[in-house]
TrEMBL record:
<feature type="domain" description="TIR">
    <location>
        <begin position="1"/>
        <end position="145"/>
    </location>
</feature>
<dbReference type="GO" id="GO:0007165">
    <property type="term" value="P:signal transduction"/>
</dbReference>
<dbReference type="InterPro" id="IPR035897">
    <property type="entry name" value="Toll_tir_struct_dom_sf"/>
</dbReference>
<dbReference type="Pfam" id="PF13676">
    <property type="entry name" value="TIR_2"/>
</dbReference>
<protein>
    <submittedName>
        <fullName>TIR domain-containing protein</fullName>
    </submittedName>
</protein>
<feature type="region of interest" description="Disordered">
    <location>
        <begin position="151"/>
        <end position="175"/>
    </location>
</feature>
<feature type="compositionally biased region" description="Pro residues">
    <location>
        <begin position="153"/>
        <end position="164"/>
    </location>
</feature>
<dbReference type="InterPro" id="IPR000157">
    <property type="entry name" value="TIR_dom"/>
</dbReference>
<dbReference type="Pfam" id="PF13289">
    <property type="entry name" value="SIR2_2"/>
</dbReference>
Length: 478
């Protein structure tokens, strides 16, 4: 068993050193990594730390009384340019993503920090069962910790979606191989449509736009027919008011709905890319719920959010994975000058960026941002009429979109409201980069609409296609 000890020197250096000595005595020094003892002169120490964390069977995160405060202070110092990267953040984030077992160890009378006091990368640690080492019973507590290490089991995690059956044909589709190559090279953007929400065909999944329209129509006492979500939302807002519409929609979308196999496959795709140095995904999400984010949270895969807010001047809000002392939510007032997303000048992503095109549920979500839905006819018309795209979409996202191939998953292009963004991007032009729309349930006229855009239709089930793509990316990324 290999044990890695993570700690903050300003918080718990003495207790961590004492723990390292105790574990080395019980398990052998070769089984315990402790930085001041095992890092030697000339090492690329950041790379070494990452490798040691990923190779560990157990990571012990030593938490003293100032662990959370020290993280906040470190962020502020780094923001002022007076501190280097937070090494403990690096260790803990890597541990949560890759280590089989992570155990918080509370020392010097510390208690577990509350989730709200920690940055997003560190928040999952608050849900883990902790061990306490008390000064008055130190040796007994270390003995108990060693005994627990011998029987500790990794927490259950959502399984990676299985490879699709050979009979469904998705894995043999030539678009899978090409899309995987484009993903591996960082030149493909994924667009997630509302039909992906019912891809598995079972209960517990988030509602799609058709179901949301039906429920709103029931509340209103009308027949929505084929007029769609934008129309019925407009009628509801006119009769019952915008605030009531927002409250109803917020209840209906169920922010905690279970992710589908498509969401899970995308999260695992991002994990494979990140693990092998390929960055992450750019996902344009046309849904209002948090199912995609929950799939990423389940496998502890980092992502930034860019959420459109149509009710405050038509601006995106950036929710960074790591805020480094800045606000957790940053309104992007000058989109063509904003360059704080994790995308470099060549379009390479540090990790995944999820762009919520039509607003929707987020975490955190302050009261002033709860009505951020682009849902009524007026909302979509406003989306269409707000000046050039450069004044609407952040520069890094827009550049990535204009220089990439596209993969649309369950995107209902037959709905005029769903075509608004495509019209803003390309106008009447055909897309120049090879792109695909995957959907086995196209409605009348949709094949022709995709054809007008220059996008090839792949009539395959979404779960099978997403899982085949996951397998192909695993093979394409070295």
């Amino acid at each position: 068993m290999q044990v890695f000890i993570s700690y903050r020197r300003s918080d718990s250096a003495s207790a961590a050193g004492r723990l390292a000595d105790g574990l080395s005595e019980k398990l052998g020094a070769e089984s315990v990594f402790f930085d001041t003892r095992d890092l030697t002169a000339g090492m690329q120490w950041r790379d070494e730390l990452v490798q040691r964390v990923r190779a560990a069977d157990v990571v012990l995160t030593v938490i003293g009384p100032r662990w959370a405060d020290a993280a906040t202070e470190r962020d502020r110092d780094r923001q002022r340019g007076s501190a280097d990267q937070d090494v403990v953040r690096l260790e803990v984030e890597q541990a949560l993503r890759y280590a089989p077992i992570v155990i918080p160890v509370l020392v010097d009378g510390a208690t577990m920090p509350s989730r709200q006091t920690l940055a997003r990368p560190l928040q999952p640690i608050t849900a883990l069962q902790a061990e306490s080492l008390r000064s008055e019973s130190w040796h007994q507590d270390v003995e108990a910790l060693v005994a627990n290490l011998a029987t500790a089991q990794p927490p259950p995690t959502p399984p990676s979606p299985a490879a699709p059956p050979a009979t469904n044909g998705a894995s043999a589709d030539p678009s899978v191989r090409r899309a995987a190559q484009y993903l591996a090279s960082g030149s493909l953007v994924i667009v997630l449509g509302s039909r992906s929400n019912h891809a598995d065909g079972n209960g517990g999944a988030p509602v799609d736009d058709d179901e949301l329209a039906r429920r709103i129509a029931e509340e209103l006492g009308v027949d929505v027919g084929d007029r769609g979500l934008a129309w019925v939302s407009q009628q509801f807002a006119l009769t019952d008011g915008r605030l009531e519409l927002v409250q109803q929609v917020t209840r209906m979308i169920d922010a905690d709905a279970r992710p589908t196999s498509v969401h899970q496959a995308l999260a695992h795709l991002a994990h494979v890319l990140g693990e092998r140095g390929g960055g992450g995904l750019m996902i344009l999400n046309a849904n209002y719920d948090r199912a995609l984010e929950r799939a990423f949270d389940a496998v502890r895969e980092p992502y930034d959010l860019a959420v459109f807010d149509g009710q405050h001047g038509g601006r995106f809000v950036h929710v960074p994975w790591w805020s480094e002392g800045e606000p957790e939510r940053r309104r992007i007032d000058v989109p063509n000058e904003y360059v704080n997303l994790p995308v470099d000048e060549h379009g390479r992503l540090e990790h995944t960026v999820i762009v919520k095109l039509h607003g929707g549920a987020t975490d955190p979500c302050p009261p002033e941002d709860r009505d951020n839905y682009v849902i009524t006819e007026d909302d979509h018309i406003g989306y269409l009429s707000r000046g050039p795209m450069e004044s609407l979409v952040p520069l890094q996202i827009l550049r990535k979109m204009r220089e990439s191939h596209f993969l649309f998953l369950g995107y209902p292009v037959g709905d005029w409201a769903m075509r608004v963004l495509l019209q803003r991007l390309w106008g009447e032009q055909r897309l120049q980069m090879k792109s695909w729309a995957v959907d086995p349930d196209l409605s009348a006229g949709e094949p022709e609409l995709w054809g007008q855009l220059g996008i090839a239709v792949v009539a395959k089930p979404l779960p099978a296609y997403a899982q085949a793509l996951q397998l192909a990316v695993s093979q394409a990324v070295p």
